[in-house]
Design brief:
Blueprint (H helix, E strand, L loop, with lengths): L20 E7 L2 E6 L2 H19 L5 H32 L4 E6 L5 E4 L6 H27 L5 H20 L7 H14 L2 H20 L1 H9 L5 H28 L7 H4 L3 E5 L4 H10 L4 E5 L5 E5 L1 H5 L16 E2 L5 E3 L4 H10 L4 E5 L5 E6 H8 L3
Parallel strand pairs: 2-3, 5-6, 9-10
Antiparallel strand pairs: 1-2, 3-4, 6-7, 7-8, 10-11
């Protein structure tokens, strides 16, 4: 029996990083990037932590204080990378493509392509990140016990606390946190409906967001602790992030419920086939006569090789259309701009995302021209108009 092959990340073109992003390299085919905003945040954290070290170890020189602070910042960044790599490697194990890991202190993310195929995949990919943070936190805590109570102990202990907070926080049961995806997996398993799971997890995320916003007041009422301005700022920032993330997930769930109703067969426009030398005026007349909404250009063997966009026809003045051939305004068809007549929902959106265009040639099961699918028609159907 052959030895099982380790799952690899399917070949993916490296995504173009947006402005304000560093490209760090690739791991298992996954592009690693970091936002430029990491640097000012890292400096602020290092300065804040160096002040704490100065209070605990006043004998330590300024250079060593800053070195220890920067070491903590770098170690914490690497632990965040381990968190995201755990998500990515688990996705690869299920043969789901991963294109990028983008690092930042408060908004790191793993770009996983495609939907999970089962609740088990959803659960495993989601829970492994927080578990990685908890393991790093536990290991750092165990390591700190072996150190004397000096600067190294303070750095390692702070790293342990930071990772434990990240792990526990991400397990909170609401989107967009990892725990929210765990909830979605559980509801999906119980109901058999992935979209129901998304809705439940998104509403749970909204509840958590409200609780975070109310946290300073709760601290005052329950623990008799007067909240500071920093408490309110942090609560507002975190609560806003959670509310916006859960709201976006809720909107996506509602939109995805419409996907099964999207069918190329019903959305495609009837098309007429003409040769490239046909005048535009004649092609327009034939389309009106045949009640067609699109024009396909065929070659000498009758095979389609170009599409005529509606905008290209209207751009030609009416008095010039008898003297302008349809081939002069046609756009050659590429392989990515051909879609099957039986494609639906997710397949349609995948084609539109991968090969953007205003129109696509629709072929039937025998490879014959069925019609033309216009992106504008898909958008109207998706929005229910």
């Amino acid at each position: 029996m052959s030895e099982p092959r380790e799952p690899q990340n399917p070949a993916q073109p490296a995504p173009t990083p947006p402005p304000g992003t560093w490209v760090l390299g690739r791991v298992r085919g996954i592009q690693l990037t970091m936002r430029f905003t990491w640097l000012p945040v890292a400096i602020l954290l290092a300065l804040g932590f160096s002040a704490i070290i100065a209070q605990q170890f006043p004998y330590l020189s300024g250079g060593w204080r800053y070195f220890a602070s920067f070491a903590f910042v770098v170690a914490f960044t690497l632990s965040v990378l381990l968190h995201e790599l755990a998500h990515a490697l688990m996705a690869l194990r299920f043969r789901i493509s991963v294109t990028e890991i983008n690092l930042g202190f408060f908004a790191a993310g793993t770009h996983i392509e495609g939907e999970r195929k089962s609740p088990l995949e959803e659960f495993a990919i989601s829970v492994v990140g927080p578990l990685a943070s908890l393991l790093v936190g536990g290991a750092a805590y165990a390591g700190s016990r072996a150190l004397d109570e000096g600067v190294a102990y303070a750095v390692v202990m702070q790293l342990a606390v930071a990772n434990l907070i990240v792990g526990v926080t991400n397990l909170l049961p609401g989107l967009p946190l990892d725990g929210g995806w765990v909830v979605r997996a559980a509801v999906w398993k119980a109901t058999g409906n992935m979209h129901t799971g998304t809705v439940v997890a998104a509403w749970a995320g909204r509840v958590i967001a409200i609780a975070v916003l109310a946290a300073p007041v709760i601290l005052e009422e329950v623990f008799d602790r007067n909240p500071t301005l920093i408490d309110f700022v942090i609560a507002l920032a975190v609560g806003f992030f959670l509310w916006m993330g859960s709201t976006a997930s809720l909107m996506q769930a509602r939109l995805r419920r419409k996907l099964p109703a999207l069918q190329v067969r019903t959305l495609a426009r009837r098309a007429i086939a003409v040769h490239a030398g046909t005048p535009i005026s004649e092609a327009v007349r034939l389309a009106a006569e045949g009640q067609a909404g699109a024009v396909v250009v065929i070659d000498g063997e009758g095979k389609p090789h170009a599409l005529v966009q509606e905008a290209a026809v209207t751009a030609v003045a009416p008095n010039q259309r008898p003297w302008t051939t349809i081939g002069e305004v046609a756009t050659r068809i590429s392989a990515g701009h051909i879609i099957g007549v039986n494609d639906t929902g997710e397949e349609i959106l995948a084609t539109l995302r991968k090969n953007p265009a205003s129109e696509y040639l629709v072929l039937d099961a025998q490879g014959q021209v069925y019609g033309v699918l216009a992106t504008a028609d898909v958008e109207r159907a998706f929005r229910g108009r």
